[in-house]
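Thread: quick sanity check before group meeting

JM: Hey all, I'm pulling together slides for Thursday and realized we never actually wrote out the predicted structure for the chain we discussed last week. Dropping the sequence here so it's in one place. If anyone has concerns about the input, flag it before I start.
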Amino acid sequence: MLLAALVLMAHNLPAQADSVNVPMVVDPSSLNLPMVVDPSSVPSSPPSIEVPVEVPEEIAPDMLELGVQLDPLDSPHPVPWNWVLATQAEVGTSENFGPRYYRSQSLISPDGQYAAYSRIQMYAQPELYRSRVTSVMFLENLETGDLRTITASSPLADNPLVSNQEADMPGTIAILIPVSWSQESDRILARQFEGMFSTSDASDYAVIWDRRQNRTSTIAPEQIQYSNAVLLGWSQTNPDQVLFRAGELGDEHPPVWAVDFMGQTALAYEDEPMVYGQVVNQVWAGPQARW
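JM (edit): ok, ran it. Output follows.
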């Protein structure tokens, strides 16, 4: 039923394709204050990422500004899935198979010193199962202009410094987007969404960069059985943990798990996900020039 819902959403995109939705919205007046994600508002059952190969032609050229952002796992921090569908549709109606680019909104740290944003690349082919999506996340020091990249160490991560044959396979999806800064602005939490086109293989990893230690960690729930995990945010009860919703595909009420930076995983009782920072939608965010 969930898979059917995603397929129907893909065919009904024209009615929803009006403006880009931000992955996490914090009122600028509440800068430095947490935004609480109500667990009851988080969808409980992650659908399959299986998308029909023939994306409707009518949504292809103009679906650049999108109203309700779709997400393959119904995440509260959605990846630009509407843009992926629109790009695939556009390629399917043309013979231009060059890469397409998308830039996320900037997430400003509570102290105003850093901005985090992602550039997403799609190498679309006429056959969806041969298309690939990769990404890189940037951290910019707004005082000095220094720029650094953040990469995950998950199975499908596209790291230019590490050879990864799995990441180069046709059909792979690896999208890294900023989710939240820590309240003290010394760490950033990002969502690494990975999957395969035309399959139900999809799950999240949490990527954490520690500014003081200059260290990047990639974590996910461990020693539990699940097919899909969805990153929710920082733990409210323990700031050294992050929360995931994880269970088997089709679970109506998958449990929420707390995972520490070493991967230790435990059920989260009476805990809520927290996110911090200010989303800034720069004029250059969204779909980019093709070449």
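AS: nice. The helical segments are 2-11, 81-92. Residues 2-27+35-287 form one domain.
JM: adding both to the slides.
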